[in-house]
């Protein structure tokens, strides 16, 4: 391409030669305008202008838009009035946060599975799903008008320096979405005893409307300064009560409520030490984000299980907070729950597993998270 430069005779007047690329692309000279700043190319002894396309001519520079042309940057100037027309007829919630449905009891949000949210098999990971659940929950609080100055806390909670902390999450996955798929996440809340709140989720494939993931969780209130659990004040209860919906995403018969055994050095099949939380692992409540524990749990899972099995169910019980200064250990024990099968053609299918996990402090062995998971062979469960 021909550089946009000023010749010697016109340099004093700031007049630039018309680049050949403009003539080749049929771009009119009046379709461009100079920006305020100019920059010299000392090596070539030429002065170069940084140009922008005006609203009248920007459509004709599409092929070079956003690229450096021999040291010159051609930048697009958007006509927002014209651009906004491209969204005409599109549902607003698809491009913004979400919307309330079912009489404002359920909050719904759409997501596209991005390339950085998939694993080696090109499907969304368990961490991706948990991030979507968390994002929808926070947007639910914000869109409801309840959000105070805390991370998901209500106005009355913020006045009392209280925050929500999760004590338990159980998630069941029927199918993992692929890169580019659109999913619909629905969430709602209900009471959990006298001082807790239950949050439920369903994830649907937006194209088929099939429910592909269900999840339930229990939340309690904690003082953000003392870091101690607190009773739910009546003012907070009255804030959230109008949003309660008595519906369970996972029925009691299939909810994993059994006690999770504590692992030790003697009972664990594998132990991974030296896991260090990073600054980027911290959330706005000044402790490790709940989703980060899943990655540490998987650090001690055998590689052949990660490659050949789908993580179809997971329950996490949170015992205490974790800060950036803590060094952690991940313990795992694998148990066969469905033996190998021989098919009619004589080939064997892999066994299914249940795994038990523990994330603990490396120094004093204090428990942080207990977890249990189920793994189904990709060969049998496609």
TrEMBL record:
User: Where's the Acyl-ACP thioesterase-like C-terminal domain?
Assistant: 266-376
Which InterPro entries did the record assign?
Acyl-ACP_TE_C (IPR049427), Acyl-ACP_thioesterase_NHD (IPR002864), FATA/B (IPR045023), HotDog_dom_sf (IPR029069)
Query: Where is it localised?
Result: Plastid, Chloroplast
Question: Which part of the chain is the Acyl-ACP thioesterase N-terminal hotdog domain?
Answer: 106-239
In short, the EC number is 3.1.2.-
One of the record's GO molecular function terms: fatty acyl-[ACP] hydrolase activity
Q: Which Pfam families match?
A: Acyl-ACP_TE, Acyl-ACP_TE_C
Q: Could you list this entry's UniProt keywords, alphabetically sorted.
A: Chloroplast, Fatty acid biosynthesis, Fatty acid metabolism, Hydrolase, Lipid biosynthesis, Lipid metabolism, Plastid, Transit peptide
GO CC term (a single one): chloroplast
> Which spans of this chain does the record mark as coiled coil?
none
Please state what class of enzyme this protein is.
Answer: hydrolase
Regarding protein family, the annotation reads: Belongs to the acyl-ACP thioesterase family.
- Function according to Swiss-Prot or TrEMBL: Plays an essential role in chain termination during de novo fatty acid synthesis.
Q: What is this protein called?
A: Acyl-[acyl-carrier-protein] hydrolase
The protein's organism comes out as Papaver somniferum
């Amino acid at each position: 391409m021909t550089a946009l430069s000023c010749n010697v005779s016109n340099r004093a007047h700031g007049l630039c030669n018309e680049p050949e690329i403009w003539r080749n692309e049929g771009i009119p000279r009046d379709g461009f305008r100079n920006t305020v700043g100019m920059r010299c190319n000392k090596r070539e002894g030429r002065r170069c202008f940084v140009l922008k396309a005006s609203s009248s001519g920007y459509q004709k520079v599409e092929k070079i838009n956003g690229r450096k042309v021999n040291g010159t940057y051609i930048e697009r100037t958007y006509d927002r009035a014209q651009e906004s027309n491209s969204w005409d007829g599109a549902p607003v919630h698809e491009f913004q946060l979400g919307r309330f449905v079912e009489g404002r009891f359920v909050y719904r949000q759409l997501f596209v599975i991005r390339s950085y949210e998939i694993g080696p098999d090109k499907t969304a990971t368990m961490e991706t799903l948990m991030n979507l659940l968390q994002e929808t929950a926070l947007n639910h609080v914000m869109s409801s008008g309840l959000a105070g100055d805390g991370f998901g806390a209500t106005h009355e909670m913020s006045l009392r320096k209280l925050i929500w902390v999760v004590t338990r999450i159980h998630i069941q996955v029927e199918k993992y979405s692929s890169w580019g798929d659109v999913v619909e996440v629905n969430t709602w809340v209900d009471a959990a005893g006298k001082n807790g709140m239950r949050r439920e989720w369903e994830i649907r494939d937006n194209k088929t409307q099939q429910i592909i993931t269900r999840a339930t969780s229990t939340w309690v209130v904690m003082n953000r300064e003392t870091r101690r659990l607190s009773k739910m004040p009546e003012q907070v209860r009255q804030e959230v009560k109008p949003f309660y919906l008595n519906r369970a995403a996972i029925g009691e018969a299939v909810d994993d409520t059994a006690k999770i055994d504590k692992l030790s050095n003697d009972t664990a099949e594998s132990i991974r030490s030296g896991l260090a939380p990073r600054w980027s692992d911290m959330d706005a409540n000044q402790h490790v984000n709940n989703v980060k524990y899943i990655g540490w749990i998987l650090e001690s899972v055998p590689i052949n299980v990660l490659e050949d099995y789908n993580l179809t169910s997971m329950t996490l019980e949170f015992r205490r907070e974790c800060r950036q200064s803590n060094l952690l250990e991940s313990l795992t024990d694998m148990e066969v729950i469905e033996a190998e099968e021989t098919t009619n053609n004589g080939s064997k299918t892999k066994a299914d597993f249940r795994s038990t996990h523990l994330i603990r402090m490396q120094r004093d062995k204090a428990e942080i998270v207990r977890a249990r998971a189920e793994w189904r062979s990709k060969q049998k469960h496609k």
